Amino acid sequence: MSAVLSEPLAGLVARVPGFMPADEGAALHAAALGAGAGAWLEIGTYCGKSTLILADAARAVGAQLVTVDHHHGSEENQPGWEYHDTALVDPRTGRLDTLATFRRVLDDHLADVVSPVVATTQVVARWWTVPVRLLFLDGNHTEEVAQHDFQAFSAYVVPGGLLLVHDVFPDPADGGQAPWHVVQAALGSGRFEQISAYGSLRVLRAVG
Ligand SMILES: C[S@@+](CC[C@H](N)C(=O)[O-])C[C@H]1O[C@@H](n2cnc3c(N)ncnc32)[C@H](O)[C@@H]1O
Hints:
The chain is an alpha/beta fold. It has seven helices and seven strands. The chain has helices at about 5-15, 20-30, 50-60, 100-110, 120-125, 145-155, 180-190; strands at about 40-45, 65-70, 115-120, 130-135, 155-165, 190-200, 200-205.
């Protein structure tokens, strides 16, 4: 896949803090365009970088995107860890808080097509019942929570719908293994087939 984002969208995405390389973002956008209208679900909003990409594709096909995050960051975003951003610490609480930054992105660019849910995926899983045409997994990368998110939400991907998994590294030298294990679980379930891969992004389709 050698897709590129439009210049205005690429510029916007580049200005938002987060964890989606430009080339993988373009691959995400191209894949999402194939998901079709309906409800889409993103796990892992952070400041809205991938949300901007998915929202643009959702708009193009007439989909609506729900994005879930508690907005306090994952383990690797906490103080002393590799991906901690001091600019995102709330001075009042001393906690990492990406919601204020995401709020501006939402108000300026996303409100017509994105419904944010500020909660843990464990809480959302208790009430979620909506069939989805697209599920993007980019939340917590611990083994336990990554598997939880896959098990909890992949059941709602309709036949022909897409499961996209980010940060998939088959070689442990390249990164954590949990998303790779999620892809293996998805393929092993017989419910999904892989249709493409770009960088650390895997695109799977739910079989009928
Ligand atoms: C890798 S980041 C998401 C990056 C984002 N997709 C982007 O494009 O920049 C993972 C996010 O998952 C969120 N997260 C971690 N554990 C979570 C949980 N149990 N429930 C909800 N969100 C969680 C973190 O707060 C963090 O914002």
